[in-house]
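Q: Structure tokens for this one, please.
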Amino acid sequence: MEIGTYFFRDDLFYSKTHEWMKIEGDICIIGIDDYSQREIGEIAYIELPAIGTNVKQFGLLCQIESVKTVLDIFSPISGTIIETNKEIENSPDLLNTKPYDSWICKIKFSELDEKINLMSINEYIEFIKEAIDK
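A: Here is the predicted structure, written as tokens:
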């Protein structure tokens, strides 16, 4: 789905801090959306979370550094990190060029019911329209 020049996938859940989440079985794949990658600018470095780390919903997951700033990335779901994307560790700019293909980590969730605290594509579109209009 497109809003102006931004693109958002309709098969994902979104957080207010612009992380996306895709559910595959008992695993959630986490990344940042098109809006977030554009706001931060050219991404130069990502500090991936450690495998085996337990995270809480909306707790700090990792940090991304760009030429403009450092951005905290928050976990959209509680659980245990089971895999990180080594490809973006070596080429963090993939988060800019392919934000929906370049995931950050996979989390084995502990509380899937927490997805109620996230937004569907329709809810997120309304939320993002307000951010774009500011």
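A few notes: The helical segments are 34-40, 86-90, 94-97, 121-133. The domain at 2-128 is CATH 2.40.50.100 (OB fold (Dihydrolipoamide Acetyltransferase, E2P)).
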